[in-house]
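Today's session is about reading a structure prediction critically. Students often jump straight to the picture, but the first step is always the sequence itself: look for stretches that repeat, for charged clusters, for runs of hydrophobic residues. Only then move on to the predicted structure, which in these notes is written as discrete structure tokens rather than atom positions. Here is the chain we will use throughout the hour.
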Amino acid sequence: MIAQDHLADWLCTLCPMHLMLDKTGRITGVGPTLQKLRPDALMVGQRFLELFELTRPRSVTNMEGLLAHSGAKLHLQLRDVPRTALKGVAVPIAQGAVLNLSFGISVLDAVRDYALTSADFAATDLTIELLYLVEAKSAAMEASRKLNQRLQGAMIAAEEQAFTDTLTGLKNRRAMNHVLSRMAAGSRAFALMNLDLDFFKAVNDTMGHAAGDHVLQVAARILVEETRDQDMVARVGGDEFVLMFDGLRDKRRLGGIARRLVARLQEPVPFEGQVCKISASIGTVLSVQSPGPDPADLLHKADLALYASKRAGRGCHTFYEETPTDPTGFSQSDEAGSPSLPRGSAA
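Below is the predicted structure for this chain, in token form.
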């Protein structure tokens, strides 16, 4: 037999969610975990039915009714907020009754709401196992979340690397083809500008590839500075660049951009005590000048306009313009029997 004066201590260890009631229904003892539910309100001394509401059976309104359901499952909840739901069973003792309570299926909510740990439950309580499982699941989910974040970051980095020119940081040909296809499939008009660096081969041949790389990086910076954030600038070859201007079809504005690019790219580029000299030839086509529009056709027409600029002396800009006599953009010359330059406007 457990000595009566030690009963409360034993119950706190074995049943940390217990209540001891006297014969009038007043609380004379409370388990430490149950008291944590109302840390600022001492339960000892309060009447059980004023602190808790029995939801099943509802017929219990006094101590006699509670003892009449000795051994039966009770459903109850705290009367104040939060109205935590509990389950319990009552057994009579000489001084009144002992109720052992539990959270039932609401244990996870209780653990969260009251910051409970495994130390708040009896050592044999299966709730501890459940808490371990929940903690293990949470740890696994957090590890999975972090792994997914790393994988997603790696995928984004790999995709970005696959679409980026490593030397200049611009988009590469693969990215250009992707963006051009997307823009061609859209409903907004756009302009495509093909730019080639003149005399770049001479820089490579006479000053070395390091100087050529430096010139390409300077040129890339200029192209980015002279375009908008929503425009796309790509390096598609050794000294070839493609620029796309979403929603822009105004030849006056496009011509102004081309003039600034030509002017800035003609400025000497210092490199290790020497000076690199290049220029830029540019050809521009509008999306409305191609049926569909068709990406391959746009690139071809921009290329025609570019080479018209080169034939015109380099360091200039030409708009592609079709003629009624030749849909390729060239008109037949009546002198020397050779094709003339495409009709267009140079910036």
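Discussion point for the tutorial: The two ends are 107 Å apart (CA to CA).
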